[in-house]
Design goal:
CATH architecture of the largest domain: 3-Layer(aba) Sandwich
CATH class of the largest domain: Alpha Beta
Mean pLDDT: 80
Radius of gyration: 32 Å
Strand content: 5-15%
Number of domains: 3
Order of helices and strands: HHHHEHEEHEHEHEHHEHEEEH
Strand order of the largest sheet: 3-2-1-4-5-6
């Protein structure tokens, strides 16, 4: 993803908060070198010179080493002024950077939680591993608000705008509540453990009966259990990956076309699903009427009725409430049909 986080943007702009600390360390090291060389020229051995420089800069207050003459005293005065000032500056910058970083991160997380508390109809993604990252990236490209739930304390600067995070175990009720489970439209469970996926799905279905739940299944035997607790769609990444690879071998061009249609937003033609609602004026009318001159730029690929797909539907098919129309067309035509059928 070609998205720079705020931390990366600060570095690009030369405003990395650690820059001043590194500069302070550089000057402190330079002072130690100058002090050691100076005391050596005043007659001390290398080890004694380094020792005298360190205790002088650190203001420890031990006795001076060697013969103290006016030159020695003048050099020590300047070393104390410049060396101690540099050391205090470096320490102060370090504390300031650490404190401000922690405080800023705490305030940002509080602001993020306030935004999550105001979300409605968002998507919750449990698990931010390889599968979870791919899901979040696709949701973000689609313009959906996404709340990530992960046990890892994720770097907020690495998350794109519109993606929020709740740190904690997804199996805990309080964590899901902070993610806005009761107000969410969709829950995607992508944890590594099938047992955890099952538990989260059961909890979510209990808390939000209208929630659309998609769950990852790492093994085939857990699919039936997930469906029984109310998961709407179960995905086995291993089976999907194998089927996709096989499709690329058998029908590579068809696979590429479907990929482009579903994911490439630069393409003029796209595929979408539209639900016929009870308020739609098209309920009770035929597919031929729907695909008349007004919607000539769209193609009705299939209709999902109940659990079955009616592929290549005839023009005499009567549209019913709850039908899901799978249509192919340009964004303009798809928006027009969605406004007509789904209103």
């Amino acid at each position: 993803m070609a998205i720079f986080g705020k931390r990366q943007r600060r570095r690009i702009a030369g405003r990395d908060p650690w820059t001043r600390f590194r500069i302070g360390l550089l000057f402190l090291g330079l002072v130690l070198v100058i002090g050691s060389v100076g005391y050596t020229l005043l007659g001390l051995g290398w080890l004694d010179a380094i020792y005298q420089t360190v205790i002088t800069v650190s203001t420890v207050g031990y006795r001076e080493i060697g013969d103290v003459d006016p030159r020695y005293e003048v050099f020590t005065i300047f070393l104390i002024l410049f060396g101690t000032g540099t050391a205090l500056y470096t320490l102060g910058v370090l504390l300031e950077t650490l404190f401000e970083g922690q405080l800023d991160d705490q305030f940002r997380r509080q602001r993020m939680q306030h935004r999550i508390d105001r979300l409605e109809g968002h998507v919750i993604v449990c698990g931010y591993g390889q599968v979870g990252r791919a899901i979040v990236a696709e949701m973000h490209r689609s313009g959906r608000d996404v709340v990530v739930v992960d046990r890892t304390d994720l770097d907020l600067d690495d998350l794109p705008d519109g993606v929020y995070v709740v740190v904690g175990e997804a199996t805990e009720d309080d964590v899901l509540s902070r993610a806005g489970l009761s107000r969410a439209q969709t829950l995607v469970v992508a944890l590594d453990s099938d047992a955890d996926n099952l538990f989260v799905a059961l909890t979510a279905r209990t808390e939000n009966e209208g929630l659309f739940i998609v769950s990852r299944a790492n093994s085939a035997h857990v699919v039936d259990k997930l469906e029984r607790v109310g998961v709407d769609r179960v995905v086995n990444p291993h089976e999907i990956g194998g089927s996709r690879m096989a499709a690329m071998v058998l029908q590579p061009d068809v696979t590429d076309f479907l990929d482009v249609v579903m994911h490439d937003r630069a393409l003029e033609v796209r595929m979408a699903e539209i639900e016929a609602t009870a308020r739609s004026a098209w309920v009770g009318r035929t597919a031929r009427e729907l695909l008349g001159p007004e919607h000539a730029g769209t193609t009705l690929v299939a209709v999902r009725r109940g659990g079955d797909f009616l592929t290549n539907p005839s023009g005499e098919l009567v549209i019913e409430v709850g039908d899901i129309l799978i249509v192919l067309g340009t964004d303009e035509h798809l928006h027009a049909m969605s406004a007509a059928v789904g209103r």
